[in-house]
């Protein structure tokens, strides 16, 4: 699934590149290109120096050094058990984040993080489900149990009244997807009745859509964008990954892909098992919030082509009770 609408692409200059290279001890700058990718978490640039290539990420929202250190430790634990992921670099002061605030507008993103560069293929929903299941199993195996509070993004629904209001606003605003959105609001709010509180919390990646689970030219699977890592029900993340990689373009379950993913997950030591519709709570909540953000972005007139495409993808591949029943049957 596509992530949320991008509120703006942070830009970097050659002077920024020189500052970053100095603070992270990367050697003299040879080139700076980008953004090479943009998404929910920020924009990524490719920095080439005499020492090699690096990914420079500019977060769209301020990040906390302590939280990023916890996420980097989680990523490192996954790397140590065989997950391919870009390693985070530290500044000469030992920090993951550095600030480029000098001379920038007050509301402009100014923080950056630097990672080892990994060449990646385009996002592909058809990648080997066994490889996806294995990686998820390893990630869940190293994710520590936790009692931290879970962000409402993963646990709370949009709600029947909000869906009805969104459908009316889309219709009143002449949105091209208004009729389709109105047609599904009842079934979407009905699906939210399945949502239950999470249990068995562990530190999880929480953003394992196809955009963040990519193959490399050499054929390995690489997991990127660990910035959202935090407490979640691993069963919920397993359900989310299944809906992404084991359904077709119309949202129908592919039993063979689902079985290969689940078997590989269990073989890799993944602790979660899917037993009831409530195990799909996380995917219902997250997809609902993503759709809501795309609709609201369109209504505000922000990047309407991107927002319209996001709504269309949700409506084409949306999770239904039939999807959940099919995956539970597997």
List the helices and strands in order.
HEEEHEEHHHEEEEHHHHH
Average of pLDDT: 92
Tell me the helix content. Answer: 40-55%
**Radius of gyration over alpha carbons?**
20 Å
Q: Span from first to last CA?
A: 22 Å
Q: Class of the largest domain, according to the CATH hierarchy?
A: Alpha Beta
**Domain count:** 2
Q: How many helices in DSSP terms? A: 10
CATH topology of the largest domain: Aminoglycoside 3'-phosphotransferase, Chain: A, domain 2
* Strand percentage: 5-15%
Domain Aminoglycoside phosphotransferase: 42-275
Protein name: Aminoglycoside phosphotransferase family protein
Pfam family, one: APH
Give the SSE layout.
Blueprint: H1 14-23, E1 29-38, E2 42-49, E3 52-59, H2 65-80, E4 97-99, E5 111-116, H3 129-142, H4 160-172, H5 178-191, E6 202-204, E7 213-215, E8 221-223, E9 230-232, H6 234-245, H7 255-267, H8 281-299, H9 304-317, H10 321-329
Antiparallel strand pairs: 1-2, 2-3, 3-5, 4-5, 6-9, 7-8
Helix pairs in contact: 3-6, 3-7, 4-5, 4-8, 8-9
